[in-house]
Specification:
Blueprint (H helix, E strand, L loop, with lengths): L1 H13 L43 E2 L2 E2 L1 H7 L2 H4 L1
Length: about 80
């Protein structure tokens, strides 16, 4: 059992979430970005931000660039 727990910890450290339709991926707490050191944004969640899941950042199958630029720092948007 202990080996199983250790294995889960190792996998969780390096695991990334797949986006899929974006309805279950938490923008702020899940590791889902491939090209960042820790799989997450550098931008801290703005106080009044209502965006919680990835599908809110997508419009008609594409990233909503206007919303991304409003919420995230330039480096995260690029």
């Amino acid at each position: 059992m202990e080996k199983h727990i250790q294995c889960k910890r190792v996998v969780a450290k390096g695991a990334m979430k797949r986006i899929g339709d974006g309805k279950i991926v938490d923008v702020w707490n899940d590791k889902w970005l491939l090209d960042t050191e820790n799989g997450m944004f550098k931008t801290e969640k703005p106080i009044n931000c209502k965006v919680e899941i990835i599908d809110r950042l997508i419009s008609n199958g594409k990233w909503n660039m206007k919303l991304l630029k409003e919420i995230f720092c330039q480096e995260d948007v690029e």
